[in-house]
Amino acid sequence: MASSLENLETQLEMFIENVRQIRIIVADFQPQGQNVLNQKIQSLVYGLQEVDKLRSQVQDVHVPLEVFDYIDNGRNPQLYTKDCIEKALTKNEQVKGKIDAYKKFKGQMLVELNNVFPNELAKYRAIRGDDRSVS
Questions:
Q1: Which residue in 1, 2, 16, 12 sits closest to 50, CA to CA?
Q2: Is the pLDDT of residue 133 over 80?
Q3: Burial of 115 (C-beta count, 10 Å sphere; 0-12/13-18/19+)
Q4: What is the dihedral of CA 75, 80, 83, 85, to 10 degrees?
Q5: How far is the C-alpha of 133 from the C-alpha of 43, rounded, in Å?
Q6: 80, 64 contact by CB (below 8 A)
Q7: CA-CA distance, 135 to 126, in Å (whole number)?
Q8: Residue 26 reports pLDDT greater than 70
Q9: How far, in Å, CA of 106 to CA of 135, rounded?
Q10: What is the pLDDT of residues 119-129, one digit of tens each?
Q11: Where is it mainly found (predicted)?
């Protein structure tokens, strides 16, 4: 699989270089450059055929759509994983904060319930099998 991806990467790099060269030729087109332009276009078509041949070897590779957004926005797609990890860490901290807040709320609520309804809370704890006293 790694060699297939490397082959695809090589073919895409050559394709990009051909497009860049065609762009230069077309931007300053001279009639005597027609043969060179035709050769570059044929190289471009050949490159696309080679990429198409490699398609079956890399069809099991799944790329998140967000990676294409990174590329469209001119960002390095290799930063996608880093950004995902940073977002996950941030979300993890938020969720941990919520869990801690709910634990504090539960503890405070049990204290208050024990003050107001001590018998009912004792029955509740017995049903749950929770023998801890309210702190």
A1: 12
A2: no
A3: exposed
A4: -170
A5: 80
A6: yes
A7: 17
A8: yes
A9: 12
A10: 999 998 889 88
A11: nucleus
Residues 6+ away with beta carbon under 8 Å from 36: 25
Distance CA 57, CA 2 (A): 10
Higher pLDDT, 134 or 90: 90
Burial of 124 (0-12, 13-18, 19+ CB in 10 A): middle
Buried b (16+ CB within 10 A) or exposed e, 60-94: eeeeeeeeeebeeeeeeeeebeeeeeeeeeeeeee
Q: Where are the domains of the chain?
A: 1-61, 64-134
Contact 103, 135 (CB under 8 A): no
**Average pLDDT for 52-81:** 87
Tokens standing for residue 43? 């190289």
CA distance 116 to 87: 43
Rounded Cα distance between 24 and 97, Å, is: 56
Tally the residues of the chain: 135
Within the chain, what is the greatest distance between any pair of CA atoms? 100
Q: Can you give the pTM of this predicted structure?
A: 0.50
| Pair of tokens at residue 5 | 């991806």
